[in-house]
Design a protein that fits this description.
Distance between the termini: 20 Å
Structural class: mainly alpha
Pfam families: Erg28
InterPro entries: Erg28
Keywords: Endoplasmic reticulum, Lipid biosynthesis, Lipid metabolism, Membrane, Steroid biosynthesis, Steroid metabolism, Sterol biosynthesis, Sterol metabolism, Transmembrane, Transmembrane helix
Strand content: under 5%
Shape: elongated
Helix content: over 70%
Number of helices: 5
Largest sheet: none
Order of helices and strands: HHHHH
Organism: Coemansia interrupta
Number of strands: 0
GO biological process, one term: sterol biosynthetic process
Amino acid sequence: MFGGLLAIPAGGLPKFILLSAFFSVFNTVQCLVAPLGMTRRIYSGQPQQVTPLTSHVFAAWTALSAVLRYKCAFNMGNEALYDITFWSYVIAGTHFVSEIVVFRTSRIPGPVISTFCVAVTSILWMIMERDFYISGF
């Protein structure tokens, strides 16, 4: 049910996805414990729009992402799970691009850069390695 560190598939991608899952858990806890802290820093363009409610909704999305990423890291050969995890990164990346470019609620430079870099790195890496993990298992 929870996987095991000894069962993680070979290669850097599963480890990167697992690390991303751990950071997602950290972000989830932060959004719940201090809802106006880091979330307001991420959305520094319009921090007044960040409320405890929006932070809690962000925590729920991030928790779901953490579960997907964790499960995918240990089950890289599961095509459906791989694809859903991939799309979770696409959605996250698209969200942050829209917040920077369209809605102007996030700013560069700022904490949003690290989240955006993880999303882009994951998207590209998962595209490049998809055949290896899906067909190779």
